Amino acid sequence: MPKRFVVAASEFPDLPRFPVDSELAEALTVASQQLHETLTPHGTLRTAVRLAVHLMPGAEHAGISVIERGNKIRTLAWTDEVVRSAESRYTGREQHGLWDRLWNSPVARITDSEADDGWDVLAALGLRSALSLRLRADRRRLTVLTAYARKPGAFDEEATRVGRLFSAHVSIALDSATVREQLTEAMHTRDLIGQATGILMERQGIDATAAFESLVRASQRENVKLRDLARRIVGAPNAP
Known about the structure:
By secondary structure, the protein is α+β, with helices and mostly antiparallel strands. Helix content is 50%, strand content 16%. It is built from 8 helices and 6 strands. It has helices at 21-36, 41-55, 81-88, 97-100, 120-124, 157-204, 208-222, 226-235; strands at residues 5-6, 61-68, 72-78, 107-110, 129-137, 141-149. A 6-stranded mixed sheet has the order 1-3-2-6-5-4, with helices on both faces. The protein starts with a strand and ends in a 5-residue tail after the last helix. This is GAF and ANTAR domain-containing protein.
């Protein structure tokens, strides 16, 4: 299960708050740089929700969630507890109307939770407006950035335009961070398997090919991932 983060909405001195057209390109460039400076997908998510509150007109709170088919929702990063509280209370299909739209559209909005049916959860928390933007989608799950505001009608067409531009940068940065993490993990796994193979070569007096085949057979026999078995061997080289 992905890690979850709560982050405080803070100021970004290099960025104009809610930039207008003349500042938007520069603001998005700086935001993109900050997103790409993160080292992990978790760091990208945490930075993205903070930037969303700073850049998206009308936004007061933001969260990033994964919505799976069957309406299971996990909030991965949020700026304030009110966001986690709002998203954690959704349990039924009828309460997922906002995110259901994102299977077919990149954007979904709530204009006024007190006037729109089915949004009592948001209204009870004082959240009147919401703007959701799709970051990732496949057949099984959505990754969604949602901005919230306490004022009704907070997210107009301009806010949506800025949000879509910003979410495009977030998607690219998140993909880059994910690939970087996977490559790092692959290198660590390769080194770990190499160490385990060397231990087996020394212990059993066999060559590298035979040692690796022995490792694979043991992995299959014990139904243990090759990486995890290699970690056990490296951690206890004299164990049987």
